[in-house]
Amino acid sequence: RPQSLSLLETAGKALGIRVEPDRNTVRLKQWLKERSKQYPELENYSHESYEPVKLDQPPPLPLPENLWGDRWRFANIPAGNLQEFFADRPIPIRQMPEHLLPLNLGLASVVAIPGIVIDGGKKSMMLAR
Questions:
Q1: 127 with 67: CB under 8 angstroms?
Q2: What pLDDT was estimated at residue 60?
């Protein structure tokens, strides 16, 4: 969970374990769900609902004006072209883990992947970062 990252990093440092934040933690989420089923059986159980993998969802905040860019538009790219499309972009800031690529997730190559294109002009590098 994002709220506990600093705690995990501190503990990991003391144990000599490198902590890498990643939202794709299937095994950890599965273990937390299994463990939460045991809580009602504990003697100090408070009868409060507990959802171990639910993240806080604060209300949305307006985007700061310095990140607006010159203009924006909705766009979509066919799943089969996503990796190829970003391979030669002029701003080389991207992260596409292999296991999360649309084709590796079993999506058909013609499925449209939605997104937003922000044209930043001279602010493009700042926006990308």
A1: yes
A2: 87
Domain that holds residue 17: 1-58
Tell me, yes or no, whether 52 and 80 share the same domain.
Answer: no
DSSP 100: G
Cβ–Cβ < 8 Å for 111, 77? no
Distance from C-alpha of 119 to C-alpha of 53, rounded to nearest angstrom: 35
pTM of the model: 0.46
Is pLDDT above 90 for 112? yes
Amino acid 128: pLDDT: 75
Buried-state track 83-121, b at ≥16 Cβ within 10 A, e below 16: beeeeeeeeeeeeeeeeeebeeeebeeeeeeeeeebebe
